[in-house]
Amino acid sequence: MAVNPNASDSDMRRLLDRLATGDREALDGCLHAASGRLTHLVRQMLRDFATVRRWADTDDVLQNTLIRLHRVLGQWSPDSAEDFFRMAAMQMRRALLDLARFHARREQAGLRAAGEAPADVPEEEDSSAELERWCAFHEAVERLPLEQREVVGLRYYHGWPVRQIAEFLKIAERTVIRRWQAALWKLAEECGLDE
Predict the structure, then answer these.
(1) Interatomic CA distance for residues 42 and 62, integer angstroms
(2) How many Cβ atoms are within 10 Å of 160's Cβ, its own excluded?
(3) Who's near 164: CB < 8 A, 6+ residues apart?
(4) Are 70 and 27 in contact (CB under 8 A)?
(5) What is the spatial distance between Cα 54 and Cα 57, in angstroms, rounded to a whole number?
(6) Using CA atoms, how far apart are residues 22 and 141, in angstroms rounded to an integer?
(7) Disulfide-capable partner of 153 in 10, 58, 87, 89 (CB 3.0 to 4.6 Å)?
(8) How far apart (Å, rounded) are the C-alpha atoms in residues 68 and 90?
(9) Nearest to 77 by CA among 32, 37, 17, 34
(10) CB within 8 A of 58, min separation 6: which ones?
């Protein structure tokens, strides 16, 4: 069965139903269906983090996320598309955190990206601070209450509009906006960011 990498929620639900019955081909279908969305989101996130982008590209983060998802889905079958996307967002956050920590250690050791001249390397203090902010943000997302975390996961990590999130979670758009704003305030407070 060919799967569209931008599969609809109903396509995902069919794949998840097949996965629940033990159909191992559905596992690959789920990952393929999510990869288009995840690729787009990783690309967006890396634009803001030049230090991480120097060391890793979209494919690196996507591969780490998909490997994690594959491992989890090999042992657990989500009950719904909501559970799947919640898990995908969590695995992307964890992949980004691990990547940021790994590259922070590389920078502390004075390593550079392949072919990078010393003049291209930002001040060590600036690079370390950027990586610390990157880690702090994703760790703060993990600590959000579930309702806020799932809205952040769908909006930030998956790039969904408010209307789609409301339909997906079966809640009012105003509730999505309220949860999104509450999460942003909490993240800004925890990470010391301007709102």
Answers:
(1) 7
(2) 20
(3) 154
(4) yes
(5) 8
(6) 32
(7) 89
(8) 10
(9) 17
(10) 39, 42, 43, 46
Q: Please report, in angstroms and rounded to a whole number, the separation of the first and last CA atoms in the chain.
A: 45
Q: Mind listing the pLDDT tens digit of every residue in the chain (195 residues)?
A: 333 445 567 788 888 889 888 888 888 888 888 888 788 878 877 776 666 777 788 888 888 888 998 899 888 888 888 888 888 888 888 887 787 778 777 766 666 555 454 444 444 445 667 777 777 888 899 899 999 999 998 898 888 899 999 998 999 999 999 999 999 999 988 887 654
Structure tokens at 10: 């109903």
Whether 165 contacts 151, CB under 8 Å: yes
pTM for the structure as a whole: 0.67
